[in-house]
Write a structure and sequence with these properties.
Layout: H1 3-21, E1 39-46, H2 60-78, E2 84-88, H3 92-105, E3 110-117, E4 125-129, E5 132-136, E6 144-147, H4 154-170, E7 190-193, E8 198-200, H5 205-209, E9 214-221, H6 225-230, H7 234-254, H8 258-267, H9 269-275
The structure holds zinc ion.
């Protein structure tokens, strides 16, 4: 061996020894058994009841649908079973019962509802968008994440919500802190993790009635004129999709029993068909918000 190669070997050996004496790092999270982890993706609002209109005239439902479909596609690429996509028509309030009947008929490990945020009416201003008067509020921007303590698996819901919040941060996305402010009045929410924008919202029907850990993501404000445009860019959506899917992957690795849910899937195949019928006679639920 030439002197140079000998020297290289010594340097490499020293480096390896150095690595060996470095304090052990934290155990990596266990790998996710993706094929056995079932997800329900809820597209907020309906094709007929489209939620808020953006400061540029695009419906919230349109934003929700595009983002949810991209999350769905990425999850399938990663090896997860195709999520149950809840895409509803008709009046928004009535769709809640139908969508949750579908969700709860198929046991799953996680329920994620995709929304985009507006603002309380008293913050809405108007502007002239090239000849059309449109609503806007540039006061708030950023995402927020909600958990209902009415959910039977609130701790797991909260675990995923915090994980999602950290993943959003890691992808350079900032949450909005304004839900914790007194001026929000009846829209004020208790922060559960102020650092990552996770709030408690018990009355949210889909979170409260889901029989699985459930979280609602308001991906950003479509009333904010700059953010409404940014949320339509592939780059912004890619960051959100990456954060959501990484959070799901991490959460999946953390929980212990995805196989039990896979078995329950087979057992509930018939029940699913019956329960998926619309419940036209469902009583009005005055204790729920969307
Ligand atoms: Zn919404």
């Amino acid at each position: 061996m030439s002197p140079l190669r000998t020297r290289l070997s010594q340097v490499l050996a020293a480096g390896l020894m150095g690595l060996a004496t470095t304090p052990a790092r934290a155990e990596p999270a266990p790998a996710c058994s993706r094929a056995g982890f079932h997800i329900v993706l809820d597209i907020g609002h309906t094709t007929d009841d489209t939620g808020a209109m953006s400061s540029h005239g695009v419906s919230e439902f349109a934003y929700n649908q595009v983002l949810a479909l991209e999350i769905d596609q990425r999850l399938v690429e990663m090896g997860f079973p195709a999520p149950l996509l809840l895409l509803e028509a008709g009046p928004g309030k009535r769709s809640l019962y139908h969508r949750m009947a579908q969700a709860n008929a198929r046991p799953a490990n996680l329920f994620l509802s995709i929304h985009h945020d507006a603002v309380p009416d008293n913050f809405v201003e108007t502007w002239d968008d090239d000849g059309t008067t449109r609503p806007f509020s540039d006061r708030f921007k950023g995402h927020s994440i909600f958990v209902s303590f009415g959910n039977r698996l609130r701790q797991r819901s909260l675990d995923f919500a915090k994980r999602l919040g950290r993943a959003m941060q890691a992808h350079g996305l900032a949450h909005t802190p304004h839900y914790a402010e007194r001026f929000m009045g009846r829209y004020r929410r208790e922060p559960l993790d102020a650092a990552t924008g996770v709030y408690r919202y018990d009355r949210l029907h889909v979170l409260r009635t889901a029989r699985m850990p459930a979280v609602l993501l308001e991906a950003g404000s479509i009333l904010n004129r700059a953010e409404a445009l940014d949320l339509q860019t592939p780059e912004r959506r890619a960051a959100i999709v990456a954060a959501v899917t990484e959070a799901i992957d991490g959460y999946c690795g953390e929980i212990k029993r995805p196989v039990a849910v896979a078995k329950a899937h087979r057992k509930h195949r018939l029940a699913r068909r019956a329960a998926a019928q619309p419940r036209e006679t469902a009583p009005a639920d005055r204790n729920s918000d969307y």
